[in-house]
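Bench notes, afternoon.
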Amino acid sequence: MPQGKVTPRMRLSMLALDLIAQLRVHQWVKNILVFVSPFAAHLLFQPGALGRLMVVFAAFCAAASGVYIVNDLVDLETDRAHPRKRDRPFASGRLPLALGALGPVLMLVGIGLSFWVSRQVSLVVVGYLVLSSGYSFYLKTKPLVDVFTLSALYTIRLYAGEAALQIEPSMWLLSFSGFMFLSLAFLKRVSEYEVMIASKSEYEMRRGYTHKDAELLKTMGVCSSFIATMVLGLYINTESAAAQYEQPIALWASVPIFLFWQSRMWLAAERGKMTDDPIVYAARDWVSQLCLVMLLAIYLVASFF
């Protein structure tokens, strides 16, 4: 075979890789949030629970990939002006735009899978799709509305896990996660704008912010991080924690670890090292992985010893 010649098999392999990239398979890690509430409530390994949650996880993966496809079609021109997003399969032209039809198909697959679990879960997934679509078409252009919407999209995943097993929502968990997800949403936006500022791009103007807003966004995000940690500390001293855990005092060890992790994430963003979604970044970061292992160990000690 002459050097440099692309065979049909190679072309098909490259198309498959571009399709996987377009589906944002690496972003599926965010859907692990559907397992959080059952895990915290010690219900994850009840008979049938894990199977139902796996279906919910798959439903969100399909729905999210469908949204990503539609979002990239909507943002085609602006992505081509972005220093990093211009390399995405649709924006770069590597993937035919006709494959954009997969977006609505995957959304329907997500709804179908969720309906198999329960009607309530299907309504949650539909709500996720409506809010995600609203974000893609309009809400992401509105300052502050965009980060609160991103926070809500994280929280919806959390609630879906509760709905799948009919768990009564914990106000403590919702309060903690609400501030934490708001912090992550600010972190995502700040990390994007650090890249924009470094590249001297005008892309940020299309999102409703300017480079002058970066410091304020950081302040609001860091404050949200510390409030989330404070909520966690307050919860440990409640009757709810005493009823849920054998040794709730052991949970105090999680407070400095969680605060360290949040602080490190913000430091990474400030230094321009975070070029992806914060949760995806954390999944690839060995320090974040170590923090997660320590938090799991603390959870086990508090729960069973």
